[in-house]
Write a structure and sequence with these properties.
The protein has about 130 residues and is an alpha/beta fold. The chain is about 15% helix and about 45% strand.
């Protein structure tokens, strides 16, 4: 069986992106691999083996165009209200918390936050299928 291990996104500013993912989700640099034309930074935390791979293409000065195919990354948390309050207090501008019901029962509670390069991240309360 295949096991998901990371998702790669291209970012413009290494320090700004590392700071965002650390402050928003507690992701720390697990590995940094420097090559002639690009750098790969793997970020993770103790919650999961899954990593976010930041790719920095050296010499790039223009922001990336996300296009209309990218959707979002998703993370789950134990206390959505606490995380929302923390990232808001840190000035990271999360969207409002949404409750999504299906067939009369809570399906999901979540909010979205946008990283410095425009990538959307969905933050879900751990519940039901969203462990």
């Amino acid at each position: 069986m295949a096991k998901a291990i990371h998702s790669m996104i291209r970012v413009l500013d290494e320090a700004r992106s590392i700071d965002f993912y650390d402050r928003a989700f507690g992701l720390k640099v697990a590995d940094r691999l420097d090559f002639d034309t690009f750098t790969l930074i793997y970020m993770s935390n103790d919650e999961s083996e899954f990593e976010v791979e930041l790719t920095i293409n050296k010499g790039r000065t223009e922001p990336y165009t996300l296009g209309d195919g990218y959707g979002h990354l998703a993370v789950s948390v134990d206390d959505l209200d606490s995380v929302h309050g923390r990232v808001a207090a840190a000035g990271l501008n999360p969207n409002k918390i949404v409750e999504f019901n299906r067939e009369g029962a809570l399906f999901a509670r979540f909010f979205f936050i946008t990283d410095p390069d425009g990538y959307k991240i969905e933050v879900l309360q751990r519940h039901g299928r969203f462990k």
